[in-house]
Amino acid sequence: MLGRVGPALGLARPAGGLAPHQLLRSDPAGSHLLEELARFRRALKPHRVGSVPYNRAVITTGTRLGPYEVKSRLGAGGMGEVYRATDSRLGRDVAIKVLPPHTSGDAEAVAQLTREAKTIAALSHPNILVVYELEHRDGIVYVVTELLEGETLRERLASGALPWRRTVEIAASIADALAAAHTRGVVHRDIKPENVFITRDGVVKVLDFGLASTASPLANTPDTATAVLENQGRIAGTIGYMSPEQVIGAPAEPTSDIFSLGCLLFESLSGARPFQRAATGETLAAILNDDPPTLSLSGSSMPPELARLTLHCLEKKPAERFQSARDLAFALRATLTDMQSGTLSTSQAATTTKAKKKATSVVVLPFANDGSDPSTEYLSDGITETLINHLAQLPKLRVIARATAFRYKSSTLEPGAIGLELKVDMIVTGRVQQLGDTLRIQAELVNVREDTQLWGEHFSRKMADVFTVQDEISSQIATKLRTKLTGEARRRLKKRDPRNAEAYQLYLKGRFYWNKRTAENFQKGIEAFRQAIEIDPTYALAYAGLADCYNLLNTYSVLAPHDAFPKAKAAATRALELDDSLTEAHASLAFVTFFYDWNWPAAEESFRRAIALNLNYATAHHWYGWFLTMRGRFEEAASSFKRAREVDPLSIIIQVESAWPHFFARDYDRALGQIKKAMDIDPDFLWVHFALGQIYLEQRNVREAIGELEGVSTRYDSLYVLAVLGHAYGVAGRVDDAKRILEKMLAAARDQYVSEYDIALLFLGLGDTDNAFRHLENAYRAREPWLVRLKVDPSFDRFRDDARYRDLHARIGL
Prior knowledge:
By secondary structure, the protein is α+β, with helices and mostly antiparallel strands.
């Protein structure tokens, strides 16, 4: 596999005294590389420009290259020699990179180089070195770029590892640059500290962007070799930073740049390269076969999440890395945000607690509907939810989520008492009245501790001006709280607004029905969202709402996976095409990518991005908790559920499902303790007893387990609940009862959607392994979402040595 890769020429002699060719000969892989390089050299013909042999001109101070006068030599690298020059036309200093002779004399290479230079020049990104022009004069090819003052990252790393926060800032800027280039189809192929420049003002610039694809195999890097592909002599990368696919000579893709950035990130954090070995061949072998070392956090305040995402960049398989540089940039910056939000490990609890004390907390209670028509209740609910979303964008503000706020919709408690119960600093209350096309809104902001009104206002506007009113309310509240939206947050909120007030009302109706969580209301929600989209086809939030309806139609066992999830994915994808900053759409896409596509890296990236965009979106934390649980990352899952509870403390479903990380970790006592906390909020909640039944069953408390599950089954007509009850009957030895449920489900499957996973669960309870795996195979073909439980579900513990289980586990990618 290594035979397609050749080493660099002209390397500095390493400290050990051996020349690069001696290092290569020190191991079989390196010797083989030298043979390949010799063949590569023999394939090179004398370079000509037209019919005239190329003779390199001598460039010294005062040499003129067109309108540029050379002032001094700055250095040399893989792309040739670099000079400082003055542009006589504009009177500015520039950098001129004179390309090596073999590139200058190759007409095809120059043509390709020109095309790529134009592409990079068109990017115009603040983190990409600006290319002014590329010239071919008198047999000399040179690139003119902006002149930078500062140092390379390699020079910065000479004194050791960087502080983790500065590393994150640098890496996120590099990822931004990569994202801009990847969007235009340009892959860098050679991300390394030498190609990252930090100006005196602290701005990060990526150098040689895209030009490296046709650069010279001649390099002058001090510590590493630069490898080239035989195909047209294109640079594949620098040994020590190359991706596995580049090592074997496969084409470099955007994920290859992400691997290289992971190497750079690892080195900046630790001071050491992840795959560096004594000999070049050994380094290449390590890139292909070895796991990177543990990124030590000893004595550092670095968040563990940063170490995890660094290793995620270094996955051997491209499909298992971050799939886009943009998502990597979001994930990196989220580590900085998490330090402020409190979603950190126990080791950072002191810092987190201090940060939390500084944050102001607020709840927006459901606005009262003062209209005479109860059918307009969706409007008061919708305005409340919109204000929650607006305030959630404010920095250093903890906003109680919708689910918790709406538990007080019909409460007789005074607002101040509610505030004390929720332990918030501020309360927003209001009333809404619709009279024809006129909308009247009253709102006020109250300090809970002092029981004083900080702000209050009446608004009377046309329905078409509802967006302006909501913006005014948010802005005035922000002013009173002495905080303000960032420019980026304002831009995101502006993009949320539809072009049409009628479309907005339909969207509010859709969310109104979606929140009722029944099959009938999901269908009503779908119809409302579709009507909103018909009126305004660019309304991204309506597409996100549509995606959420289809996502839950399967998990509520209404539609088969192939009828629900592709529609959910299409709607979420369209929402993101219209607005890539939409938190809800990223969470919706993550949901379907997790449960249906089984694409774990992509799902995690979407979850992380949703959270980074809005730390106050409890649903993203909730669903991400499920994802982490199914991946077996139980402590991380518990932290994610904890954050969801902080944002949405009275969401009974989040309280219940916070028990699942402990349940699947086989810590049943801890799971039971969490369920009892949920019972304090609502002891009659259906899913509290459903969870109790499953916990009791695994504790071998069979009688209580069946009692809980039978109680749920009599209250809620659900085939999934019935399947879990039948499984419990089978485990308890009540075979006739289990078979009775099995027959009922098989009969129902003739006329409606019945989950194959549920049927398999029944057979597992009965101990009928063959039929269980037959239906699990059917579930696999149908892409049943609950197969994601296969890795962690204790129901499968006694079958884990079965070859059929291992095969299914591998095919799902668990």
